[in-house]
Amino acid sequence: MQVLAISFGRNGGNCDVLAKKALLGAKAAGADIRFINTDNLIIERCTMCGACDKLFDAGKADAKLCTRPDDFRFVRDAIMDADGCIFVAPVYSVGVTGQYKNLLDRMGASHDRAAMIDADKEREASGGMRLDPRLFKDRPVAYIPVGGARTPGWTSMGLPMMHLLGVSNQMVPVDAMEGYGMGDRMNPVLDEPYMERVFQLGKNVAEQCGLKNTEMQWRGDSEGVCPVCHGTTLTYRGEGAKVECTVCGSIGEVSVVDGKLKISYTPAEIARSRYRIGGLIEHHEEINDMMAGFGRKYAAAADTIAERMKEFDEIVSDKPEKRTMLVKK
Q: Burial, 63: exposed, middle or buried (Cβ in 10 Å; 0-12, 13-18, 19+)?
């Protein structure tokens, strides 16, 4: 079994330190380990060009693969090969660095397991090329967002954002740690209890490699307010005492028990979590239903759309006089 840790921070920086310490924990649990630092890699943003769909929809590719000539496929294939993953990313402005979000956008919808299950069934029935079996591998995952501030509020969007990489791929969160306070630590190696906890995080991932999604267990320090992602971020949509887990999308009822906030989720709501296949199927069916009549509706409205778009014709994008080329360090 192989555990992969990816650091999105500077070479040799705090993210690297934490990722490598977690890998030592995974190695102690019997895993082969692999480390990638993305600092010198180029992972460009998704432009929704649709190129990844073309060969796939024609049945000539075993996965939806981005065609942009950068380092995305190298990172993507490393994740696909791994049996368990650890992601460590810096927090600059309350949320994680943009490079992590670029990877998420390019490895999200294109790797949606519900869509891949449907596509593989269709290909099996027609005798076509089957999909890459790595798309269906169950993997445990752990996340560490890393920031310098003393207070957790300045890294509060880090962990929720990091979780989203595992959703479409149906990775199972088995641990997570907040990495705020690095300014006072100077270097995390000086905080031995903290580093021991990071070591344990790596073991927690390795010990659950090879298990089915339904068999993996949460090993984090806090249960949080969600029984699936164990996060603490909630969204209130103005409906009585109902709140939604911002990461999972499951809706629960709020109450206060012994002075503490408690969120109760029905089994049906847990089953429709984005981290469960039921949630992905629900969204996949929603998209399919939306697209079913899209072409017909758009054709019927084409003249109206064209006429109403004319008011924007005189507003054109400003452009730089000289383009700064993106180069590897």
A: middle
